Predict the structure of Heme biosynthesis HemY N-terminal domain-containing protein.
Amino acid sequence: MRAALWFLALFGVAVAVALFAGNNQGTVTVFWPPYRVDLSLNMVLLLLVGGFVVLHAALQALAALFEMPQQARRWRLQQKERAMHGALLDGMTHLLSGRFVRASKAAEAALAQQLSLQGTAQYNGPGTQLRTLAHLVAADGAHALQDRSRRDEHLSQALAETAPRQNAQAAELHDGALLRSARWTLDDRDASGALARLEELPHGVARRTIALRTRLKAARLAGQNQEALETARLLAKHRAFSATAAHSLVRGLATELLNTAHDPAQLQQVWQGLDPQERQMPELALQAAQRLTRLGGDDGLARAWLLPVWERMVGVPDGLSEHLQQRLIEVLETSMESLDGPWLARIEAAHKANPRHAGLQYLAGMACLKRQLWGKAQQLLTQSTHHLGAGVLRRNAWRALALLAEQRDDAAAAAEAWKQAALSTP
């Protein structure tokens, strides 16, 4: 459509020129004594247009001639800029491919090119950004080569370039340099140095996933279990791990934190500091109760922590794995001497509801044994030995039966029970 309109306009101009020039009888007379020159008006117009074109072309040629030195300077500047950017790209490529010596040399070559361009008045490129990236590439290569002095030198120069934080780009580069520094320091097994670098970050940057991952590693290396647990919670909230990995990580850190408690009061404080969903984890509840019992704490409090685990075992089919059920029974057995009436009722009700459960049979038998109900204890423990696998519970059941046989002066039964206890030892 546009081509058709241009064609119509050109056709109109041609018609107008033909009508004007075809019937134009005008003349132009030039008097140059003693001469007289008569020219047609059309010829004069053509000469004027031609003279204008020639003059314009001449002026353009002169401008191009005088501009050639400046163009040459621009060309040389462009060549240097291309060499500088090419050196930086080569350095990053060598760094990714594991050629750390070549990466450092290429980054330093880019820095040398930029330094030569910095004194040029025509150069107005991104000097700060390029220098910072080149310093970081050189520092990364030096870190891989274990050249800490050169790494720290380039790092300090990169931080000095972006320290003013004049704009958002400089601030991002400064934060990136700090993050890289924290990871390098962590590689050197300097947890306190890595945490100090992370503390220099703004609050928003410190909550980014890469910063939190670094903080988690540094806190675990420094033995700061509370800090590591809080960081792991944030990472799980940001979905930095899968649900299974996050659950396992939080559980492991909370277990380490529980194991660091040295008295019942400290253990209770740690337990109350856990999140409600963490206190519902069977592994943590079992570990806390077992730790409290070992520290000589209140057995009633330990059983209170175990109550949700117990309800899960007796109320939900396959709610607990066999290993966790065995641990729960072992922890409850350690506090059998102080077992109160409500817990005895719970054990009896659970056994009646599931009389074929070997663990409940064993626990009920041990409760009867502690209450000196010898006949019922012997019956329940004997039944449990037929279903319990080789392990601590079966060994303890046979030991209890051996002691009951010795009380009855049944030497043969006692010997057989002791033999089965020895065979049940894992």
User: Anything to note?
Assistant: The CA atoms of residues 282 and 309 lie 6 Å apart.
